[in-house]
Amino acid sequence: MYIFYMKSSPKRHAQKVEAVAEQVRKNANNKMCTARAGYESTSLFVGKYKKTMQKIDLSAFVDILNIDTKKKTVTVEPLVTCGQLSSFLLPLGWTPAVLPELDDLTVGGLIMGFGVETSSHKFGLFQHICVSYKVVLPGGKVVTCSAEENADLFYSIPWSYGTIGFLLSAELRIVPAKKYAKITYQPYQTTELMLDAFAKASNDETNDFVEMLAYGPDRGVLMTGVMTDDAEFWKIHRIGKFWGPWFYKHVEGFFKTGESVEYIPLRDYYHRHTRSLFWEMEDIIPFGHNIIFRILLGWLVPPKIAFLKLTQTQELQEIHEKKHVIEDYLVPMSTLAKTLEMQDKEIGFYPLWLCPCKIYKTPHRGLVNPANDEEMYVDVGIYGIPPSARAENGGSFDYVECHNKAEKFVREIGGFQALYAQTYQNREQFSEMFDHELYQKVREKYGCDKVLPLVYDKVSREARS
User: Fold this and answer.
1) Residue ranges of the alpha helices (H) in 311-398?
2) Tell me, what's the pLDDT at 242?
């Protein structure tokens, strides 16, 4: 917080932009990357390339620059976080059309990487709510791009991991916000009913929010929500309180109580999985959900991911890589049943996060495009230690074979792997999953090859430690 206030200076945005452009000009003959330390990102891996490239300092780009309620946009710098956005916009009666879950996710990471949330069935991925970007290109030229201006650049930036230019600001679409999310919980205990209800809810745009937590191959709780200013007082659930139950544990309880409705303050809803890092806290602090711990020490949870990375030993890192699965697979809705069968067979981890999301056809094909004109996809979030990797079950999990099979499956069905996770694909397989045609043309047009690495060389297994 103190570091934020020391660096915050929205009125100096133009000066900050020129300072970055000058850094880029001075390094016109060197490979470059951002100076942001590897431990500061929310990815659990650290890029090795940081050790050999010239670092461009963007640490001052932490400010919300402007809100335009007539145009319904907010302009922000790349290190603005989801927590900042919700804290700033909600009291003004606005919210980003898509606001991903964890507080510390940055706008730059959500654009250059990817971002999804329970409103994505209506608005698409985070990149799809972006109206324009300001970037500094190789050579130090500062350019604004949008669907109407420098469109090839605009559509090639998402998922590019800073391999075309350095993001300086982004203009995001906002929508009116209300006080509460009215959430309906519907438990299902057969696969067919569960998936049919999920597909139907995902295609119903009267729902502001849609997600499902799958607790087994045939057990899931569907959650649909709408924003509202009116709430039944006795049904208000302030899930953001540190002493309260972790959200996924709370949701699991509806298998016993049956269908139910709650009113959750909107900011609490947006960050409902933050305290338990979905369900990762169960392995980090096994007793963390105990009511006594939550009352006495729940205010300490969750630890910052940066802290976990800084304090992780090499041995723990190797155990994490070989035992832990952290993946988001974006798969066409029509293949969801097959995807869940694959997950159950090859990984077998539960619970799963299922979040519907549109991937739109665009005038210029970027790295990620819908397969066979099917725009509705599902993010299948797998975060944890598979049963076969646990010592009590023999610890026989083959992590390389598992990832290879899963990635092959996702490629074959026209899906995508979120690149914050570790990819085991080789260069040819990676190019098969992600459309590189526009990306390569834009890199050539703006002279990126000499000074910026390829995206594969930033996200591959060999590029990260």
Assistant:
1) 314-323, 336-346
2) 85
